[in-house]
Amino acid sequence: MIEIEHLTRRFADLTAVDDVSFRVEDGLMTGFVGGNGAGKTTTMRLIMGLLATHGGTVSWNGTPITDAHRRTIGYMPEERGLYPKQKILDQLVYLGELAGMTRADAKASVTAHLERFGLADRAEERVEKLSLGNQQRVQIIAALMAAPAALILDEPFSGLDPNAVDSMADLLRDHVARGIPVLFSSHQLDLVERLCDNLVILSGGRVVASGTADALRSAGPHRHRLVLGADAGWLRGMPHLHVLDVDGATAVIEVVEGAPDGVLHDVLTQALARGEVHEFARIVPKLSEIYREVTA
Amino acid sequence: MTVQPAQAAQRPGDQRPGDPRTAPWLIVARREIIAKLTDRTFIVGTVLSLALISGFMGIQVYMTQRTQSFTVAVIAADHAMADKLAAQASSIDDKVKVTVREVPTADAAKSAVMSGAADVWLHHDGTPPTWVLTGREDVDTNLAQAATLVVRQAVTTANAQAAGTDIAAIERGATLQTALLVGDAEKQGFAKAMGFVLAMLFYMSSLAFGFIIAGSVVEEKASRLVEIIATRIPIRALLVGKVVGNTVMAMAQMAIYVGVGLAGLSATKYSALIPGISAGVGWFLAFYLVGFLLLACLWAVAGSLASRNEDLQQVSMPLTMSMVAVFFSAFLAKGTVLVWLSFVPPFSSVLMPIRLLQGTAARWEPWVALAILLAASAAVIVVAERLYRRALLQTQGRLSVRAAWSMAE
């Protein structure tokens, strides 16, 4: 488990990462969400020791993280690049060796990964000959090939077509299934919602929300939609009830904070007494709505 | 298909003695070397330089070995003198070889020269009779010189005998020897030329490899590969590997150039002078090795200060200028300035070997200069590592040395 506590980093007058705390738990996929300049990349660089911290700590299974720990983390930086003139196999083996693999292990792992991505026949080609999407696959192999003890991936899905996104997602799930913590950043909220067990939303260098998608959803106001057989205007007269919208027989309601229990029960009883009830349902907000709300 | 990730990889951090895995800096050095060996530009450049050196040497060898053969036409009466010329020509001038061709009459000799069957006609006639060498349009100077000597010796010997004495008695005490206070001019000139050649090699090689090193640093920086590398191995290992790998290549290339040059030289008329310069050339290689280490670190720093290849010209300007200064110092530095500069890095890399070639350096001087160069290299490596580490992860435009030095990591 990687635990980030009160992490802070300034660049001149700008506080890029401001008292950020969250956890990346073992065997779970954690999505790192936020707009441009929210501090995602800086946070990841701080975790990887590429930048010095101005405050706060990063711990690895309860002890302060060291370079030896970091060497076991598969890291993929935001902007991509490899040696354009070197053969794919050669440079992946090189990066594997730098991660502490033997040459033979590195070669076997690279070959298996290239096969999985359908790139086995291109192992001897130069990287510059590959399409951008394939270059990105090669780069993710660099992060995954040494059986990393954790993964920290900056925008691993950007620029991939839907099929590639699926195979990348499968690959990440395999590693999560090994029980390692995985943190990745993304702009694509639907993707994060689909893949992640946990979410951390960053805005202006601060964590504005974090937790499971369900927890985030239920942290918002509880709203219900009511569709009746006749006009719903009478709801406005109910005590402890905030009626957000009435449109003929349809209404959106929210129980006022501090109201006694049983308000919704009373509403439903009244509605049934007055006639037909077609729908009475909790409105589950989309993650994008929550995101807009917390980063506004 | 699922990928079984390799079994819990061990890490460089937990390397133990006897571990088959390679040290990180060696892995980096190996990649640098392989990258050069598979780089077409590098290979073509090396082969072209070798071709230039061998071509130049080839011309020298050809000039040395070229001999001219001359056919000399004579009538029977003059045959004896022509035989003397044929016998002695090569010992007078080793490029001149003479064959004698006897013809029946003077007219036959003339027509032989006219037709090209003979190059010259050697004859003894006129009043009073003198020896004449008749050519068609010209007479080769080397042949004429050899013939003049042979004729003079033969005639004076005959005259001396006629006067009842011998040539040795006449010539006794009439010789003039020369003595030199400073040294052999040919040897001096040769040493000077060798010095310039070495200065040129140093300049070209350090500049070419300098840009190669800086370029490879910028490549890693611009592509953010350095972020991946920096999380896997210490930045120091990256710097050391890069510097060592390129130094090995530069040194190998230089040794090949010098080796081919010396091999070629041994086939020319300068071969006798090679033992006199071999010590100087050996010192040059030692100074080149240490000097290149120092420069390689500086070039790596220059690369780390740039963010893109376009910035490279500008950040490397001070280095390029100092290379030019070293180059010109080899031609311009004289006297006391030369002596002092031959101890100052990086000038010492070129100037001390030049002084050794000239034979003006005392036995202890190269050792002191080399020690100073080594100390300077060690200091530069320490400073370079700090600058390199700090500048490497900065990607916003060009950095000044001062900014990189005082920057937070």
Report the sheet-strand fraction of chain A: 25-35%
Helix content of chain B: 55-70%
How much beta of chain B, percentage-wise? 5-15%
Silhouette of chain B: elongated
Total E-strand runs of chain B:
4
Compute the CA-based radius of gyration of chain B: 33 Å
Arrangement of strands in the largest sheet of chain B: 2-1-3-4
Q: What's the structural domain tally of chain B?
A: 2
Q: Which structural class is indicated by helix and strand composition of chain A? A: alpha/beta
Of all protein chain pairs, which has the greatest interface, and how many residues does each chain bring to it? Answer: A-B, 51 and 42 residues
Secondary-structure element order of chain B, N to C: HHEHEHEEHHHHHHHHHHHH
Number of structural units classed as domains of chain A: 2
* CATH topology tier name of the largest domain in chain A: Rossmann fold
Structural class of chain B: alpha/beta
User: Largest sheet of chain A, described in full?
Assistant: 6 strands, mixed
Strand order of the largest sheet of chain A: 6-7-8-3-9-10
Architecture overview:
The complex is a heterodimer of chains A (296) and B (409). Chain A is an alpha/beta fold and 296 residues long. Chain A has 10 helices and 14 strands. In chain A, a hairpin with a 2-residue loop joins β9 (198-203) and β10 (206-212). In chain A, α3 (88-98) crosses α4. The longest helix of chain A is centred in the middle third of the chain and has 16 residues, at 162-177. The two termini of chain A are 31 Å apart. Chain B is α/β, with parallel strands linked by helices and 409 residues long. In chain B, α3 links the parallel β1 (68-74) and β2 (96-102). Chain B is elongated and about 100 Å long. The model of chain B is unreliable at 1-16 (pLDDT under 50). Chains A and B meet through α2, β6, α3, α4 and α5 of A and α1, α7 and α8 of B.
